[in-house]
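Complex record, two chains
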Amino acid sequence: DTEVTQTPKHLVMGMTNKKSLKCEQHMGHRAMYWYKQKAKKPPELMFVYSYEKLSINESVPSRFSPECPNSSLLNLHLHALQPEDSALYLCASSQDPGATYEQYFGPGTRLTVT
Amino acid sequence: GDSVTQMEGPVTLSEEAFLTINCTYTATGYPSLFWYVQYPGEGLQLLLKATKADDKGSNKGFEATYRKETTSFHLEKGSVQVSDSAVYFCAMEYGNKLVFGAGTILRVKS
């Protein structure tokens, strides 16, 4: 099983809402990632979890709050977002931390902030 | 700073045409290099990779060779198919992270 799953597929939320994005992998990978991708742009790294601990935070605003409850799950909690946060949010995992390892990407959650 | 530069698209080809998408990088040292592909409505998939100079990565008919002297990692395919239509991202390893190029849209028409 080389699949990374993400839920929901689509999400529309108002600026005062609180919502969460979920990501799951069952490949035994020890590194998990959140990326943000705007239309026609490359993915931008947001967070990296290594062995369930946050290892990289790319100066992401605090309205995005990541959580790694266990080695298979990764959440991204959203609160008080802005319209410019509308994007495709991609989760990825890799066998170990370190960019030389292949990252497996999920299909993404398309977020619209109204 | 360290960066990846790809040729701008979109690239439009007829089926069975030869494909080249140029990619060059700027980095200190010799980073690992990757090509990822993103089909419409999907996440990214690793297409191929090379970890040292003169390595050739290949997969599904696509090839790229790590050229240290020209700091390049150009993607090639001898005969494209309509199903190859996608966005292609060149990327390199930098400080335990992936740095992506801007992406090149490929459209193949039958």
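Note: The two ends of chain B are 41 Å apart (CA to CA).
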